[in-house]
TrEMBL record:
Record carries keyword Hydrolase: yes
GO biological process: purine nucleoside catabolic process
Assigned keywords, A-Z: Glycosidase, Hydrolase
Name of the protein described by the UniProt record: Purine nucleosidase
Disordered as annotated region, ranges: 79-107
Hydrolase found in the keyword field: yes
GO molecular function: purine nucleosidase activity
InterPro entries per record: Inosine/uridine_hydrolase_dom (IPR001910), IUNH (IPR023186), Ribo_hydro-like (IPR036452)
Signal peptide location: none
Length: 317
């Protein structure tokens, strides 16, 4: 890919999804070419309405396609306790004037990848149901996309929705595992190992202008995190994934082959890798995802630099 980074966003807006769109909008070398919505933080109909509201607010002329309404193999669960009854902290506002496209988010992703081979990046910041469905439509998707960054997983830290699982992967473990097994040539996973370290303190939030829409929606999100973590502020999961897509040098990575635990009573939805210290010729062969393409998992990030960039992005007119 040469020139501006052209990005398809798959999201479940969602307060931190909104921040990710603000972040991308502020980057001069990026272009959002399409948005797909998925169940997750809120039902997909609400996520779609929120995405349409956000593109109107951000003056983005991009198609929004409504995606999967439920996971591949388990009941729908949503997270209004985290993001508010409308997904935007009670500040979604009026009904959007724009309509979503007729094609599904999975169809949109497959079609745009076919039309623009190796020219598009994918930022997936919700459950991976749409991406899994797009793989069924277009099995060559891993070769057609340039880069893929996924927000999900808790490799060597506790989960946030269960003791072991991160929310996006837990909302559709089967889809997440299909995506990790698909053979994407440049796949980066941004999980809780780095996002939880990027906690934005209350002082960061208080410094935002009073009339700033992100400040309004972040109030609900920060209240949730105060009850969840016992300290004021919030965790900007999705915008950190957006930042790492735009600027990979913000993070360091562990490269490995990954899978999702699908059957564990306590561990369903957890990302796993065989991280044993084994010699190349060890008789104890690795036993997780040995046939899969290697991916990068973010393990550290420049949190101060990221939070400064995020502040700049969300205060742009």
């Amino acid at each position: 890919m040469i020139g501006r980074m052209r990005i398809i966003v798959d999201a479940d807006p969602g307060i931190d999804d909104a921040l990710a769109l603000y972040y991308l909008r502020a980057q001069p070398e990026t272009e959002i070419v399409a948005i797909g919505t998925v169940h997750g933080n809120v039902p997909v109909q609400q996520a779609t309405a929120n995405a349409l509201r956000l593109i109107e607010r951000l003056n983005l002329d991009v198609p929004v396609a409504m995606g999967a309404a439920k996971p591949l193999a388990q009941p729908l669960r949503t997270a209004e306790d985290v993001h508010g009854p409308d997904g935007l902290g009670g500040h979604a506002g009026d009904e959007p004037k724009t309509a979503h496209t007729k094609e599904s988010a999975a169809e949109q992703l497959a079609d745009k990848a076919r039309e623009n081979p190796k020219e598009l990046c994918l930022l997936a910041i919700g459950p991976l149901t749409n991406v899994a469905l797009a793989l069924q439509i277009e099995p060559r998707l891993p070769q057609l996309l340039d880069k893929v960054v996924v927000m999900g997983g808790a490799l060597n830290v506790p989960g946030n929705i269960t003791s072991h699982a991160e929310a996006n992967f837990w909302h559709d473990p089967e889809a997440a595992d299909l995506v990790l097994a698909a053979g994407f040539e440049d796949l980066t996973i941004v999980g809780l190992d780095v996002t939880m370290e990027g906690h934005a303190p209350q002082e960061w939030l208080d410094a935002l202008p009073d009339d700033c829409f992100p400040r309004r929606i972040l109030g609900f999100y920060a209240d949730f995190y105060a009850s969840f973590l016992g300290k004021k502020g919030f965790v900007p999961h999705d915008p950190l994934a957006a930042a790492i897509l735009c600027e990979p040098a913000l993070a360091t990575y562990h490269e490995d082959r990954f899978a999702i635990e699908l059957t564990g009573r306590y561990t369903r939805g957890k990302i796993v890798a065989d991280q044993r210290f084994l010699a190349a010729d060890s008789p104890f062969g690795r036993d997780i995802a040995t046939e899969r393409t290697r991916a990068k998992y973010a393990v550290t990030a420049d949190n101060a630099g990221f939070l400064a960039r995020l502040r700049h992005a969300v205060t742009q007119p």
